[in-house]
Design goal:
Radius of gyration: 16 Å
Strand content: 15-25%
Strand order of the largest sheet: 3-2-1-4-5-7-6
Distance between the termini: 43 Å
């Protein structure tokens, strides 16, 4: 198995560094759920995680969502490549620019995912995350400031800028309700399924 340079870099990080990053995600999710409600009564809560940088995050995601939601969680992690997630539970190889299998979900969660997707395909991922939700569910997409403030479409290391204002306009045109929540490292865009 040969990992991409991105996944190799993550695999070399210490467990303490991964936990520190997971703790930052937990703080973000706590802030998000202080602003928006999950209006489903599923138990366990079904969560689709869209993309994951390291297999150690899979267990952290389950723990984080259970702590934040105070409910048991069934978590499925989707990624276009899965070699770097070998050994983790409930991993599905899938391109998130295509409809998510196994829907409906209570939550779809993508943390800095869109910058890995060519800009012209990013909105399909947002729409697929929304379409996969149960009524009352939420799709959560977190961003770093750099990817949404970028002045060029292509970023370094094969990454892509995220034209967040353009995607918000398209959501409005489709009458998809959303909320933008400012966080420490960048905003979160929450799509709300009624």
């Amino acid at each position: 198995m040969v990992l991409s340079s991105y996944h190799q870099k993550y695999s070399e990080r210490s467990d303490e560094e991964i936990k520190k990053r997971a703790d930052a995600k937990e703080q973000e999710l706590m802030a998000i759920f202080n602003e928006v409600a999950l209006n489903t009564d599923s138990n366990p809560v079904r969560i689709a995680v869209l993309g994951c940088g390291d297999k150690r995050f899979v267990a952290h995601h389950k723990r984080i969502f259970e702590q934040v939601l105070k409910r048991s969680v069934e978590l499925i992690t989707f990624d276009i490549v899965i070699d770097h997630l070998e050994g983790a539970e409930n991993i599905v190889k899938h391109d998130c620019t295509l409809p998510l299998p196994g829907a409906p979900y209570d939550i779809a969660y993508g943390h800095v995912l869109l910058k890995f997707i060519e800009t012209k395909k990013q909105f399909a991922t947002l729409k697929n995350s929304f379409d996969a939700l149960k009524p009352g569910g939420v799709a959560i997409h977190g961003f770093d400031w750099g990817e949404i403030k970028a002045e060029t479409a292509e970023l370094s290391d094969g990454l892509w800028s995220v034209p967040l204002e353009q995607w918000k306009q398209q959501l409005t045109e489709l009458s998809i309700e959303y909320k933008e929540i400012p966080l420490k490292y960048g905003p979160a865009l929450i799509l709300l399924r009624k």
